[in-house]
Design brief:
Blueprint: H1 13-23, H2 35-47, H3 54-62, H4 71-93, H5 115-128, H6 131-135, H7 139-153, H8 160-166, H9 169-177, H10 179-191, H11 209-215
Length: about 220
Amino acid sequence: MSDTPQPEPLLDDDQLDRLDDFLASDRAGEDALDLIGSHGLLVALAVAPSEAEPATWVAELFQGEPDFHDDREREEILGLLDQLRRNAIAALEQGQLPELPFELTLDDLPAEETPIGDWCAGFMEGVFLDETTWFEEDEDAAATLLLPFMALSGLFDDEPDMAEFVGDGTRLEALVRQLPELVLDLYLHYRVPPETPKPMPRKKKPAGRAGKERNQ
């Protein structure tokens, strides 16, 4: 029996459908992220080492002010988005994997032509919101952990160092299958403090003058 936990849905199907309908509509704005990209951005915010203000990530997600019918709809849509983020945090805190809203396979397509690429691009948008904090503690470790998301996002294909990596279809397929585990690895890196070494017992100090005199 596998010890790998089953992915945890971050919203139920009806909630995802409601968000999908709104984000795909004209009222969300033509530059707004779709459901897949929004899901990626919000999961990144759940992992992020710093807390983003709601106004900041809402502005990034919609790239403007959505045309809500009324305050009730505004509260509903923004509430669902924040619930997705909070559910991701709760799942990751318990060591669970987030369920991603697509099949974990590229089917021989370039990543940027699939929902996988859209999700990873949304994830990287979440990173870009406060890029400094993602890299300030351990830049090399952060770059290594984020490399799969960067490669699958299609946002870095023009960088020379990425060409060989994204050209390896077998490697990319393996990374796609591991995406939920990679999210959890990132969360553990940022949110779980490293174990501190056990304190070493203090060495006894050599006897001072009084000690020497007693031993004479």
